[in-house]
Amino acid sequence: GTELTPGNYEFDADGKIIMKNGPQSDGYFYRNGIRLSAYQLVKYEGDYYFINDFHKYATGRTLYLGSQFTDGTDLTPGNYEFDADGKIIMKNGPQSDGYFYRNGIRQNAYQLVQYEGDYYFINDYNKYTISKSVYLNETFVKPFGLLAGYYEFDENGKLVMKNGPYPDGHFYQNGTRLNAYQLVKYEGDYYYIGVGNKYVTNRWQYVGMPDYVFNGTDVRPWHHSFDDQGRMIGYYEGLPNGRDIGEIYNLKTTDGKSIKSGLLIRGCELDNANYYYPTDIIDKGIDRLKNEFHVKFDMDLRSETVGGLDVFDESVTHKYYNMAMYDEIFTADGKEKIKEVFTDLANPDNYPIYMHCSHGIDRTGTVAFLLEAALGVPYQMLVYEYTLSVGSYGNKIVAVYNKLNSSYTGADFKAKTEAYLKDCGITQEQIDTLREIYLEK
Length: 441
Known about the structure:
Number of helices: 9
Number of strands: 27
Helix content: 10-25%
Shape: rod-shaped
Strand content: 15-25%
Low-confidence stretches: none
Radius of gyration: 37 Å
Structural class: alpha+beta
């Protein structure tokens, strides 16, 4: 009928029971005044104590505690260290002895563990890996949603969670190095991992292979340009076949001048009048043209009969041209169309411009070819920029080159293109203005 249990009690000089609790200086452990017996794990004021031989609690030693002791607690069977006061030393994480602990117990080898947001790998001799790269297969990484691969661990044993392109030339995703022949997206840009598992830089690269899939993007297997940081350039998500002619790798004039970016973006139709692209992707492109490039002029090389819509508001001028393409530009009607287009291109007030037809290949490709030629871009790069849209299908644009080269006089192809534009009614002043608009000083 009392709160006491049978046992040996000590009474003081005044006759009162001494209600001892917890570890005492005599080496025994008490609960409500009674001394506890050997071989039990007890919890007191948030700490664990183990009563060992001779009914005394363990101090300054390491003991193995099996399930008969740990059941019913938040501990697991294993070796536990007790301090000078008898408390279990509740180590967690990596320790200076080279071992990794969880709730006071030392963890065994060959496991990846997470602690305070970082990953550690327990390797040989039950010690965690430091300053070393280790290959971790799917068995180790899958529970954490990581990819199998090589992971680097720093001097503190933490997995170095690299992401994106690194100066070593490799591309990382959540700490692991990615393998060759894949297109990856990082912070809004695309990178291509090529030969030697390194991302490509300062080059154009064919991206794709049989059954290559670009899920969730409008990137298609073809030739793409990459800058000195490895980023795909001249390509914009939401604008199928879209690119800024000022961001094409090595698209420079014969005298080394670069074309300014942000002036002329070329691409496909955005109203899906003829060809149907996913609406959510097209919406991204429209938003980007309005809010990032601040387009002022929608140079629509189609005819009004296509049934297309004006995707911009009244702040953007939308004009149809019913543009000629390829060898049609050498007819009387074709020359009139060229005069109309280039008159608008030579007006600085129209920029930035979004120029397109349906696919952004034929009519757009023809105008871009003539514009870049008039700026002084060499023939090989003219064809290359055209084939970014169509690959090796360049025979029609080559026919345009051959016709200009054979029918007009001049010291080089730039001069011959200039002669052709003048034949269409474009003045020398307009041609000079074009070069002032587009070319870096």
